[in-house]
Amino acid sequence: MNTTKRPIVTGIDGSGEALDAVRWAGRAARLRDVPLEIVHALDFPALLAGGVVPPPEEMKDTLRAHGQRYLRAAQEIAEAQGTTAVTTRLDPDRAAQALIEASRTAALVVVGSGGRGRLTGLLAGSVASAVGAHAACDVVVVRGDSWDDPEVADRPVVAGIDGSEPSARILAAAVAEARARKTRLVVVHASADEPRPETEPHLDPQAATEAGEQLLGELTGEHEAGGITVERVVVRGHPRRELIERSATAQLVVLGDRGRGGFPGLLLGSTGQALLHNAACPVYLVRTVS
């Protein structure tokens, strides 16, 4: 084990969704041969009476004791996935802030799709949304009810490629995941994206399909000899709809945290937001801006 590698970081709050994230993160750490760090946020800022009066130490001690129990249980779950280098940490901050800060030195942050304090009707938890938008590294949001089933190992990794500048980075992450999981990779380009600026030339459907095939051929050509099967798919459809549908038969969907139509200040692309709320499997968001 090379413990000098950047760790995978995951958060635990005692919820079932967080335990799913620990299981997924534990397996990912084993596949990558990297350490795993499990963080429990104590959320002391929420206890400030009137925003200024700190809580009594007895209350803090109780929260620490609960947090240590959560961490011990999470560590046992992680080690059961074959992860050998597991560390745990209590953080006094709020969950999202603690994980975003940890992302500065992490290889990957893994979060559950919801958690304690989730508002009724909120499909992707506020922590998952905040970390997906603000983390300094790639983020995985563990979604779906069947990702842990044994037969899921035979499902492909699906990558959404839109032709934007970060497409090569997204593809590289997807290839690495497919290789680690010893499964095939399906690279999808949906050519009927959002309306194009008037300055861009309009392509008829046949030309758009040919352009998409050329794009995927150029991007994937160098990877096909790398020991995995790569399937290229060009469709006339909206990316979010296509990727959501394919997530039902995938073990992981990989895409960029911002899309081709992104603009300065856009924290998470519309396709990423849609997948965080509706995907049937874990979603891997590749950090595309530094």
From TrEMBL:
Residues 6-143, 155-287 form the UspA domain. Keywords: ATP-binding, Nucleotide-binding. One of its GO terms (molecular function) is ATP binding. Pfam families: Usp (PF00582). InterPro entries: Rossmann-like_a/b/a_fold, Universal_stress_UspA, UspA. The keyword ATP-binding applies. Belongs to the universal stress protein A family. This is Nucleotide-binding universal stress protein, UspA family. It comes from Amycolatopsis tolypomycina.
